[in-house]
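Q: Please design a sequence for this.
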């Protein structure tokens, strides 16, 4: 009996055919998987790029909204500061788009008189706003009573016989303007030949301090920052420490003016000076010599004693071992006055008095034998020679 053998791996056999089909199917599946992976990676990359672009667009849109809101707030603030009356005409507010978010423009200063040292002005800029200021007025409501025309100064040489009042009258200004613009601290410093700057309108000078910005300065003087910039000829809102800004329609206080003019305090009583400031006076009880921190005005018993300046009575006391009956009046700028050895008292604590009001009469109460008035002026608690004021 004969047997026939079969080779399953021979060409054309069934096993070989099945193996070929399996390999073909494996390659197809592998190709499909690679294609799917490529598609997935492409989708992921697309989503990431799209998300970044959307985030960037959202950030730009948010920043634009914030900037616009900031402009609206600044506009409302300036409108609150300079709200014109119903009868006054209001100029339209024109908004100008920001072309340069961080302008760096040199800010011209108010004209300095030749005698003023340039060392007073620092070169360090203070950026106050990011927008350029245009002459038309881009934001904020302007006070219609304040002219926005740039201030002009005229140099004037003091002539013999000139006074502050005479100079001010000749230019149609208040004397406070002449004093404030030229930094005059004592009327006795005005001499023939001195050069003064005379502005074309009433106002005063403000020197920029550290931490200041244009809006804050304008607000403190009750005006819009655009007007303040235009008056001073500023091309941008950058200002420098020590820079001099002209403040229109605002002058130094009456008290400061009186101090400069040596009229802040007047003599509280008629009589002769028995003891000057910072001189030795004998103590009637101990017999020792003491340095006086005031002056003694001698006159008859009952001589009227008046307030040397406007203020508020803060003390009415009777100390027979010292000043006897005395009064203390508080004034502006840290000044106080003391009136001692009075015979009668005409005021009470808390009463406001004007310069020249009668507050008592001269006497000899306390540690004194004759009828005299002890008068003292203090500044922030430190005594000052009264002769500097009258």
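A: Design:
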């Amino acid at each position: 009996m004969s047997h026939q053998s079969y080779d399953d791996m021979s060409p054309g056999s069934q096993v070989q055919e099945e193996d070929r089909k399996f390999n073909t199917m494996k390659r197809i599946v592998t190709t499909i998987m690679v294609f799917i992976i490529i598609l997935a990676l492409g989708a992921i990359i697309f989503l990431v790029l799209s998300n970044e672009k959307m985030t960037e667009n959202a950030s730009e849109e948010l920043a634009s909204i914030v900037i616009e809101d900031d402009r609206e707030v600044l506009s409302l603030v300036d409108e609150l500061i300079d709200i014109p009356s119903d009868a006054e005409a209001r100029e339209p507010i024109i908004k100008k788009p920001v072309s340069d978010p961080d302008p760096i423009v040199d800010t011209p200063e108010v004209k300095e008189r030749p005698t003023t040292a340039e060392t007073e002005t620092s070169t360090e800029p203070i950026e106050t706003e990011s927008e350029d200021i245009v002459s038309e007025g881009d934001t904020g409501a302007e006070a219609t009573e304040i002219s926005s025309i740039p201030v002009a100064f005229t140099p004037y040489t003091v002539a013999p016989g000139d006074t502050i009042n005479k100079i001010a009258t000749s230019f149609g200004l208040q004397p406070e303007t002449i004093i404030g613009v030229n930094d005059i601290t004592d009327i006795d410093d005005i001499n023939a030949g001195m050069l003064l700057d005379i502005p074309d309108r009433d106002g005063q000078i403000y020197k920029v301090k550290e931490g200041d910005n244009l809006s804050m300065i304008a607000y403190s003087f009750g005006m819009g920052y655009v007007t303040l910039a235009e008056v001073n000829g500023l091309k941008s809102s950058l200002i420098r420490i020590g820079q001099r800004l002209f403040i229109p329609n605002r002058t130094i206080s009456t008290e400061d003016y009186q101090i400069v003019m040596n009229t802040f305090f007047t003599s509280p009583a008629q009589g002769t000076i028995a003891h000057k400031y910072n001189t030795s006076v004998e103590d009637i009880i101990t017999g020792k010599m003491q340095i006086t921190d005031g002056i003694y005005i001698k006159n008859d018993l009952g001589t009227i004693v008046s307030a040397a300046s406007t203020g508020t009575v803060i003390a009415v006391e009777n100390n027979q071992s010292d000043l006897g009956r005395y009064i203390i009046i508080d004034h502006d700028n840290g000044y106080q006055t003391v009136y001692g050895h009075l015979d009668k008292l005409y005021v009470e604590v808390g009463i406001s008095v004007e310069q020249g009001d009668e507050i008592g009469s001269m006497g000899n109460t306390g540690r004194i034998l004759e009828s005299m008035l002890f008068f003292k002026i203090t500044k922030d608690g430190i005594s000052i020679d009264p002769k500097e004021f009258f």
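Q: Thanks. Anything notable?
A: The helical segments are 14-81, 164-170, 175-181, 214-220, 225-231, 254-260. The chain has six helices and 18 strands.
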